[in-house]
Amino acid sequence: MAREISTVGVIGLGTMGAGIVEVFAKAGLTVVGVDGTPELAERGKGFLEASTGRAVAKGRLSEDDQAAVLGRVTWTDQLGDLKDVDLVIEAVPERLEIKRDIFGKLDDIVRDDAVLASNTSSLSLTEIAASTKHPQRVIGMHFFNPAPVLKLVEVITTLFTDDELTTSVRELAERLGKKPVVVGDRAGFVANALLITYLARAIRVYETGHVSREDLDAAGQVGIGLPMGPLTLSDLIGLDVVKEVCDVLYAATHEPSAAPPALLQQMVTAGRLGRKSGQGFYTYEKAGSGTVLDAPAAAERSSGATKTVGVVGTGDLATELVEKLTESGAQVTAVDDPAADLAPLAGLPLVLLVGGPEAGCEDCGGGECLIAEGADPADATACECCHGKAPAAWFGAVAEALDERTVVVPTDEASAWALIGHLDPQVQVVPVAVHQPTRAGQLVEVARQLDASAEAVDGVQATFDAAGFVTLASRDRAGLVVDALLYPHLNDAVRMLDSGYATAEDIDTAMTAGCGYPQGPFAMIDAIGAEEVADGLTQMQLETGEPALTPSPLLVEHAAIDRPFLG
Ligand code: CAA
What we know:
The chain has 21 helices and 16 strands. By secondary structure, the chain is of the alpha/beta class. The strands form 3 sheets. It has an 8-stranded mixed sheet with strand order 3-2-1-4-5-6-7-8, sandwiched between helices. The chain has a 5-stranded parallel sheet with strand order 10-9-11-12-13, sandwiched between helices. It has a 3-stranded mixed sheet with strand order 14-15-16, with helices on both faces. A hairpin with an 8-residue loop joins β14 (432-434) and β15. It is elongated.
């Protein structure tokens, strides 16, 4: 039978501890909040008053309910005040020696049947449990920041943990309105092992200087559709916490992708810890604030938009681009028939080439046979199956019809390949990737190649900005920014599944309920297609040589038989 838990102690009243106090008090439990000094205990009380005060101001909580929540909590600097609680949750800084010291002391304070839980985000729960007199009553309850908002609680068990205890804690999490995911004790558990590795990878991309801070965040928020960009999220979590989790993950796995990036280490050493210190990747109004001071003024790039644009190609994307560009006031010359006269394209400053499956014949998939069979791409008749009607040949003819002042914008790889050998070397090529819309908008990534002028890149960006897209510019690398962030992250999730640590469903729950993802990694892979993810990873792996980019064998299997991960 599940045990009765009605009184809870929370040790450590920083951001997470105070948030956890709020969760329990709002669910009607009696809470004892403990921190090391009366001032720190008072600060914890202040956090709860401020947070519930904001809820009252927004009309989400009545003043009476706020008073009831505050009335359920007592604040103290004495661990001894925890002697009667049913459950203690420790949320002190992530240092094993501090946690072991506290758990050791609790042994002599709390009742023998009290549960001892840790909110550790990555440390070994087994090591914490082993230092206590009753390791079978030690369990992990890992909340996510902001704890009052995010639904996930990772319930971490060790070899010592009682099954009955696991059931009780899972039920308790459900009573709190949370979504528990029960997993064993492994570095980073589910969510941090995936999330923090993704953040480390993003920081490493930022370190290269290939993309700006805002553009990198737009890739995560608009391109992938996550609630925040990776640098903004790192600042929210705290760069010291991100680094600590990287350290733990790296020590456990020796995966270079988990190692803390040099820039992250330097920022932590310099005391730039993110929102909590007032400065991280962004500069904030004051310590603890989320208001960014050094955000650039809203871009007015769209004033440099090109007013006459050609769109060559067929399919949904071509239709969408023609519509949006026309609505933005551009005069659009649309060419959607390989037999059409190409003369109207001559002299246009910007021409978009849109491939897509509908534009090529079924056999060659839009020109891929030219590449795969090693045929001379300059030979428009080389594509025997579609006799020059696939983009490979059609776009080649278009390229030859263009004026040398035209900026050519291939929107996919087949279009870009089709240009090889046809273009006047003077013509500038600015490839783009148009993403599916997400809840934050529709992203277009603009690739900066070495020989493209800043003017050409800016002009392409401005044209898409004016047409209502969100744009970012980065160096032209495999996967650009969005796929370079997303695909390795998805691959890590597949590796985790393949390692037997958690189910695909639990991993998806962890990332949606713990990090606010609109859908979990496996739902994302099923939507994109395992083959596309595996192919994208292979391209990146070929370009960088990074071992972590090798597609997981399980991903390759799913790709080979076209089997979804879910359902
Ligand atoms: N405390 C209480 N409530 C908060 C809050 C806080 N700190 N921050 C936001 N909220 C509430 C707001 O009041 C608002 O509530 P209402 O809609 O009822 O008014 C709601 O949350 C949404 O807030 P906003 O509209 O201001 O902003 P948003 O929609 O952008 O959401 C967010 C903010 C919830 C933080 C969202 O951006 C998000 O989910 N981001 C991802 C955060 C994430 O990944 N966290 C996990 C980090 S990893 C971790 O924590 C584990 C670890 O061990 C390191």
